[in-house]
Amino acid sequence: MSFPSPATSLSSIPANKVRLVCLSDTHGRAHRLAVSEVAEGDILIHAGDITMYGIYKEIRQFNDWLGQLPHPHKVVIAGNHDEVLDPLVCPRPQDPHKLLTNATYLQDQQITLYGLKIYGSPWIPIFNSPAFSLPRGEALRTRWRAIPDDTDILVTHGPPWGHGDLTRKGYNVGCKDLKNEVTYRIKPKVHIFGHIHEDDFIQLSNSLLY
Question: Which of 21, 76, 83, 149 has a 20 to 30 Å separation from 9 between CA atoms?
Fold first, then answer.
């Protein structure tokens, strides 16, 4: 799998390439994007925080918007704002797979598309919002150890330590245990995440694209 430069025309990409379109932290505003404003691609991936307020209305709007997009495959995970998708904090939980009918919803699950194994997990170290938040240490390590070794594309809501995790106050808030698993065991081709809005970036490090 290779990645075009921003100046590359998508229509010129050879047929043996897979085009990923990555979004995250749209916070109830994804439906404001016109279809023409979303890049063409084969797999659209949303790395969590679909909602701002964690309510069903936002999920329905997001699902309807996904249904308008032409991408053959859409993969979605939750984030810490998406309380309605977390049965541990939502008072009236519903099956996320039934709410997000226009995408494949992954919660500590894997799917294979175009021969690429994609694993999605929503968990973050405890933060300001309660959904999908766990204490640092063994609780999070258990989630990361469940990620298969053969994962090609890893999608998490939170960043690994030292990559896209720097807050405005100058603190790194990523997960060190996730960083260790990604770097030394899983070694995916791509790791997609969001969560820390002010530190969005793209980085190639040791053949791993963050």
Answer: 76
